[in-house]
Amino acid sequence: MRTVLADLHVHTLLSPCAEVEMTPHHIVMRAAEYGIGAVAITDHNASANVQAALEAAQRYGVKVFPGMEVESSEEAHIVALFDTLEQLQRWQLLVDEHMNGMLNDVESFGAQYVVDAEDEFVREEQRLLHAPLSLTAAQIVQQVTALGGLTIAAHIDRPSYSILGQLGFIEPDFGFAAAEISAAGWRRKMQSKLQRLAGYLPFVTNSDAHNIYDFVQGPKNLLQVEELTIAELKLALAGKGMRAVLAGQFSDFCKE
């Protein structure tokens, strides 16, 4: 059994709200430096920087989960994670079909950059990424699961861009593998509404980093798994087979 520090919600500079320092290479380099053994790259409705992260990670011994932060038609954010780039690319094709077709306004939202594993500029994404798809949250969960991935309800303690904020509830059979509590929510030790979910939905906490400081210092998860795969992560979230996930602040797990 392995114990691995993991951050399952990290943005690169492809996300319009992320700093340009958030290149794939910089992220995995810092992960290795601070003992973060697994990282999920989860840009808004996009995956073009995941391959660069996978290539860069080979140099540093860091596991990269191919992922995406998807925005549903209800304007709820959902983290989708996969084992392989091929699965993610199949998911991206479906996402592309359900985007609104609007172009990005750089002055309003920020630039969206695609880079390679050496941090060299490749192109600027012209489509507006931070926008809802025409897929409902339920459809997103169903489709990601069908492709072999898992879904996490993102930052459910926030009043906006969350399942609880937009829908007001999460049914036990919705299909999420976990619910994510934001850094601020974790510090508050969760409101009573969130505590009621704990009976049927495991909690994780991630940095949701848009800059390097938040990535390094933000909350993390300690995974106890046989290997770093989606199947093992599902078992750990369910607390099966001696697997486990312990969520908390970065300072709880390691020193600077």
Could you describe the 3D structure shown?
- This protein has 256 residues and is α/β, with parallel strands linked by helices.
- It has a single domain, classed as Metal-dependent hydrolases (TIM Barrel, Alpha-Beta Barrel).
- Helices cover 32% and strands 21% of the residues.
- The strands form 2 sheets. It has a 9-stranded mixed sheet, sandwiched between helices. A two-stranded antiparallel ribbon has the order 5-6.
- Strand 3 and strand 4 form a beta hairpin.
- Helix 1 runs parallel beside helix 2.
- It is globular.
Q: Identify low-pLDDT runs.
A: none
By CATH, the topology is TIM Barrel
The rough form would be described as globular
Strand content: 15-25%
How does the SSE layout of this entry go?
Blueprint: E1 2-10, H1 24-33, E2 38-41, H2 50-60, E3 63-71, E4 77-81, H3 85-97, H4 106-109, E5 113-115, E6 121-124, H5 137-146, E7 150-153, H6 163-167, E8 178-180, H7 183-187, H8 192-197, E9 203-204, H9 212-217, E10 220-225, H10 230-238, E11 244-248, H11 250-253
Helix pairs in contact: 1-2
List the keywords.
256 residues, TIM Barrel, 9-stranded mixed β-sheet, alpha/beta, two-stranded antiparallel ribbon
Quick recap:
The chain has 256 residues and is an alpha/beta fold.
